[in-house]
Amino acid sequence: YCEQLQHHNQHDTAPVTVADAVPAGGYDPELWRALQREEFELFYQPRIDLRRGAICGAEALIRWRHPERGLQQPNSFIPACEASGLIVPLGYWIIQEVGKRLPAMQEAGLDGRIGVNLSFRQFQDRHLAPTIERLMQEHRMDTRTLEFELTETALCSDEEHVRSTIRQLSDQGVEFSLDDFGTGYSSFSLLQKLPITTLKIDKSFVDGIPGNIDDEEIVRAIINLAHNLNKQVIAEGVETRAQLEFLIRHDCDQVQGYFFSRPVCLDQFLNLLSTNRRQQAL
Ligand code: C2E
Ligand code: MG
Ligand code: MG
Ligand code: MG
User: Fold this and answer.
1) Which residues have CB under 6 Å of ligand 1?
2) In what helix (H) or strand (E) does residue 32 lie, and over which residues does it extend?
3) CA-CA distance, 250 to 233, in Å (whole number)?
4) Beta bridge partners of residue 114, listed in sequence order
5) Hey, whose CA ends up nearest to atom 8 of ligand 1?
6) Distance of CA 103 to CAs 58, 65, 99, 139, 264, Å?
7) Which is nearest to 58 in space by CA: 215, 247, 261, 278?
8) Which residue, 66, 86, 227, 238, could crosslink 27 as a Cys pair with Cβ 3.0–4.6 Å?
9) Is the ipTM of this complex over 0.90?
10) Which of 144, 160, 212, 214 has the alpha carbon at shortest distance from 182?
C-alpha cells in the first residue's frame, strides 16, 4: 500500500499526499514500518437503531497488532500518529480498508453506514477531499455506505478549508457526524452551516444516566437539539440496560456500546450482521 502511494507521488498527476505530509523529522519509524507491514487492523462496533431494534451500521476503530506487544488500543498510538502527521497516510489506509471490506459486509446484510474517524490533523492535508473521492472510486464504494466522524476540534481549526472539504464530500453523498458531542467547543452556527447529519453524545454524559440529574438534563438537551435541527442522535458508551431504557424513553435514535457489543474483528462483525438479518426476518 505504501509503495502504491509513493508510486502515485512520483508518477501521477493526481494530488497525493504522503510526501507532502512527511515532517522534517520524519515519521515515527516504528509506526511507519507498522503501516508498511500492514500491522494495523480495523475493528467494528455495531450501532443499533432503537426503533427497529437492529444493527444500522458500525464505527470502524483502529487497532495495532504489534508483533511482540499484541493488540494495541488507539489511545496508545493515535496521538503519536497525529503529532508526526502519519495519521494522514494511515487515514487513507483506513478508508481503503473499509472499501475492501464493504462488499463482505453488504453480503452479510449491512444496512447502514460505516463511521470512520477523521482527526483534525487529516484536514491539514489540502488534498483530503479529492484523495478520499479517488479512493472511493478505486474501490467502487457507494458513498451512501460511508460516514465520517469529526470532533469539534477539527471543525474549529481552519474553518474555511474544513467547511469546503465537508461540503465537497457531502455533495457526493458521504455523511458527517459530530463525535464526542458536548465535550468540545462547537458553535450552534457551525452546526447549522455544516451538513452534519448526526450528533454522537459523548460517553461521559451517558455514564451518568439515569441518576445524575445534570447528565440526564444534558443528554435530554442534546437529543432535543439534534431533533430540532433535523439531525439524528447516537448515544456512545451504553453499558447498561438502565441507560438503554433512559435513552429509549427520551427518544434517542441509535446507541453504540458494550451493552450490545464491544468493537469486534471483521469476522465477528460479519457474524453479528448475519445473525441480525436472521432475527429481522423472523
Ligand atoms: P471515539 O471515536 O469516540 O470512539 C469510541 C471509543 O469508545 C472507542 O474506543 C470504543 O471502543 C469505546 N467504547 C464504545 N463503547 C463503549 C462502552 O460501552 N464502554 C467503554 N468503556 N468504551 C466504549 P477506542 O476504540 O479505544 O478508540 C478511542 C479513540 O481513538 C476513538 O474515540 C477515536 O477518537 C480514536 N480512533 C479510533 N480509531 C480511529 C481511527 O481509525 N482514526 C482516527 N483518526 N482516530 C481513531
Ligand atoms: Mg479502547
Ligand atoms: Mg468516533
Ligand atoms: Mg466518541
Assistant:
1) 45, 60-62, 73-75, 78, 87, 94, 117, 119, 149, 179-180, 236-239, 256-258, 263
2) helix 29-36
3) 11
4) 58, 146
5) 61
6) 14, 24, 8, 10, 18
7) 261
8) 86
9) yes
10) 214
- Give backbone dihedrals phi and psi of 74, rounded to 5 degrees, phi first: -60, -35
Cβ neighbours of residue 212 closer than 8 Å, sequence gap 6 or more: none
Ligand number nearest to the C-alpha of 239:
1
Whole-model pTM above 0.90?
A: yes
The per-residue pLDDT for range 249-272, each reduced to its tens digit, is 999 999 999 999 999 999 999 999
Residues with CB under 5 A from ligand 2 (ion): 73
Collect all residues with Cβ–Cβ distance below 8 Å to 73 and sequence separation of at least 6: 63
Q: Determine contact, residues 261/46, Cβ cutoff 8 Å.
A: yes
Residue nearest to atom 4 of ligand 1 (CA): 61
Q: Is 266 helix (H, G, I), strand (E, B) or coil?
A: helix
Our mutation pick for probing the ligand 1 site, out of 82, 117, 176, 207, counting the most ligand atoms within 8 A of Cβ, is 117
Q: Rounded to the nearest whole angstrom, what is the distance from the C-alpha of residue 10 to the centroid of ligand 3?
A: 33
Query: Hey, CA dihedral for 6, 23, 27, 40, is it positive or negative?
Result: negative
pLDDT, mean over the chain: 91
Ligand 1: which residue has its CA nearest to atom 3?
180
**Distance separating alpha carbons of residues 198 and 178, to the nearest angstrom:** 6
Considering only CA atoms, which residue is closest to atom 25 of ligand 1?
61
* Segment 47-79, tens digit of pLDDT: 999 999 999 999 999 999 999 999 999 999 999
* Count of Cβ atoms closer than 10 Å to residue 120 Cβ: 18
Atom of ligand 1 nearest to the CA of 119: 44
C-alpha 73 to ligand 4 mean position (Å)? 14
Surface-to-core class of residue 6, CB atoms within 10 Å of its CB (0-12 exposed, 13-18 middle, 19+ buried):
middle
